[in-house]
Batch of 3 targets.
Target 1
Amino acid sequence: MAVMRTITARWYTQGRIEDIRVVVVHDMEAPESATTAENVARYFATTGTKASAHVCVDSDSRVRCVADAHTAWAAPGANADGLQLEIAGYARQTREQWLDRFSRAALEQAAIQTAEWCAKYGLPARRLTRAQLRAGHKGITSHADVSAVYRRSDHTDPGPNFPWAYFLERVQHHLGGAQANQEETVSTPMWPGRILRLTSPLMEGKDVRRWQRRMRARGWRIAVDGLYGRESAKVAQAFQAEKRLRVTGEVGRDDWIAAWEEPVT
């Protein structure tokens, strides 16, 4: 098994504002070679381009660029709650090319890393649909799907021919098969006991941040800053109107529960 080495990226955010929810699979748009992970990691360490990933892999190595506890800059919309995994290769590759000798070895390194993350952070070893990604479910996704759901980038990696079934089978193998076809549900957290509303000074707290995070996961454009300001009130009003709740711009018990239990439309 390859020994993990570290080449620290230049650009990333210290800490996280959200809990880890997804593994985001990327390709490097770089040649297949036994030094590609190291080369791309060195690029992240020195580039003026504000980009990074948590781990880079090729056929025989895994290179750590950003600690899991910090936020890599790789997939806007899924940076705050994502673990970013770069695999040697190109989005234009055919399925046959993704399953050649080199790529199988690289996919094995990627599967080992993904399995470790799934086990450590309680992530189901399954590829999320775009609807599931938007709704805040946990699992594995692609940069392409993050781009499609959040519309904050135009990347389409790892491409349409990426062998998802093979990759997920290898992840399952390294997990011991315990998570095969597991369905994950988003449980409704207990209502915090106070109504979230516009106040002066602004109401703030973990409950505000949790509700904001949930609304953003549902697809609403909202900052997750823990402050209940005008933007939060407008999102609450729009959500209440959509779900035929009493439109107040405040988040009471029924509104809180609806944020988790109403279907995403």
Note: The domain at 203-261 is CATH 1.10.101.10 (Muramoyl-pentapeptide Carboxypeptidase; domain 1).
Target 2
Amino acid sequence: MQTLTISNFYAKVLKRSFSLDFYVPDELAEDAYFLVFNDGQILDEVRIAQVLKEIEGAGLQAFAVGIHASDHRLQDYGVSGQPDYKNRGSLAGEYKHFLVVELYPFIKRIFRFEPTTTRSAIIGFSLSGLSALDIGWAHPELFSKVGVFSGSFWWRSRAFSPANPDAHRIMHDRLSRSFYKPGLKFWFQTGTDDESSDRNNNGIIDSIDDTQDVIRVLESLGYENGKDIAYLEIQGGRHEPSTWANALPNLIQWIFNQ
């Protein structure tokens, strides 16, 4: 496996450049799995190269791209078309366009690789995990799997209100107004020490609560927990790359087993 870097890939829709890291098998097979990571700048910390080499050693292949977050991370990541109540995530739609309309065809052309939807996943961490679910949900024709580490599912359209602490969560609302999309599968990870906040005072931290509520919405649409949805909760897991590194092999194994 080799690692290639493009330090200034220009995104026309956003009028600025991104740094990209590509993790490419030495002999890229047409049936290789295709993994797109938001927050690609942390992939060394989560030991992606080591995990992919172990996969290769088992006779399997994955071609991964890590898109580094820019200085505009709080605007690029979010839910497309719906900024939060502080107007964060205002460029989520443009970021999605960049990834799907500009970057995806570039990868196909330069690497002469045609990703297979059933072997393609989009993955993110924290806020970029929210973005990954947004993009995967919008484009099931490109990605059949979504991986989210400690997702920022608290993202809200209105400020927190003690009278209704779980209202106005943007992703939950987006999903609940949608419908079952055949073929999509979801992997979620949380850590019991992701945070200490418990806004609804139910004894469960928000990171876990919000993720489990996303899972419940997906179940209400027809997805089966255990079949279409996987959930990994790490005891003592924190909202940081060291925990996500420990969880990454679980995600990769899940992707290859689907």
Note: The mean pLDDT is 96.
Target 3
Amino acid sequence: MIPPISMAASRDQALSALNDFLPKVPFYGQKRNRVIPGHEDVSRLSGALRHRLIQESEIVDAVLHHHSFQAGEKYLQEVLWRTYWKGWLEWHPSVWADYKHSLKAWHDGADDRAQERAVALMEGRSGVAIMDFFAQELTQTGYLHNHARMWWASFWIHVERLPWYVGADFFMRHLCDADVASNTLGWRWVAGLQTAGKSYLVRASNLRKYCEPSLLEAHQAGLERLEDGVVEAWPASYLTIPCVETLGRPTADLSRWVDRRVGWWVHPEDGLADQKPLQKANPVSVLCTSRVHETLGSSVSAPSPRYRHQVADDVRQRVLSFMGSGDRVPTVEPSEHWMESLVQWASKNHLEAVLAYRPFVGSIHDQVTDLEIQLEAAGVAIVWVEREWDTTWFPYAKKGFFPFWKSAGQQLQARQISLTS
């Protein structure tokens, strides 16, 4: 058995993990690529960020308060990469639609030999021992270091010649921090589909440089398949992805809902309903949805749902504390009927409106239109709220990361001045 990985599954744990990691921030650039047991060189806050148990702005402000911009830049970039990926996918939602279509087609019609080989890799039976270790680490712990994710994705695509979207689905089903934007676009980047002329090739020399020596020494079998010059890039067909003309999402005026019969819907995209701005409108009731029903993929290993349940418990406890009454905070467990339960909850409480943070492109967002129709039929409005962080940075995420970071870096330096003045 591979030892479990410590990941913050509550807001208190996330704040504590951030505080513990702050002294390591200046060394992040030097150490972040090392894959070592326990992964102490990285913050492991990705799960808390994915479910917004902690806000990106809180992490950024803490780093800028304790360190110079230059000392914290590499870690700040890592935080902003997640924001960039989310923003880019909001501008290019067809990528997610194409991914789902391709994945369904694979499950419906891929040849038996390819499917059997894919399962062998997922179960850690590829014959390349270090890659098999990473597959087992993922399914047993729900976590992989980012460098290991890149190595394994490259092995899947460029060595085994398996479809990138099937590997991406494997990660989505097992990662505790599974994020549609970061995962989908990260796999596309490795495949050479995200940036023209750029793909990522796994190399044995890179593994020897960054992988814990004892770990690699114990997993030498098959490593010759990854030697420099052996791995050739899968011939990607790069296509320019259409960009929507506008995100077209006016900021909700919450002031009009003060002293009205409103309820909060808290879903897995944002676990900070008890924080601003949603708390401006005092709710009659709060519905917590621990996870929406998803139809893609198949089996999921224990760490991922266990982590989600821990997150959901933390969210519910904080909402209970805010509301002061358990009767006013029902929970909907994962089910294909979650939407029906939500509409029934809104009707039972005679709500005029349901307030919720707008879901990002992904499985919850896919069902937004149906939810709006059902609530409207019940005479209930739905008001989508967005965080200032997202509305600030998403407009810059239309194109590549480095133009995005050029603007972001300048604004963060100005932010640091305002924080310290």
Note: The chain has three domains: 11-91+401-420, 94-226, 254-385.
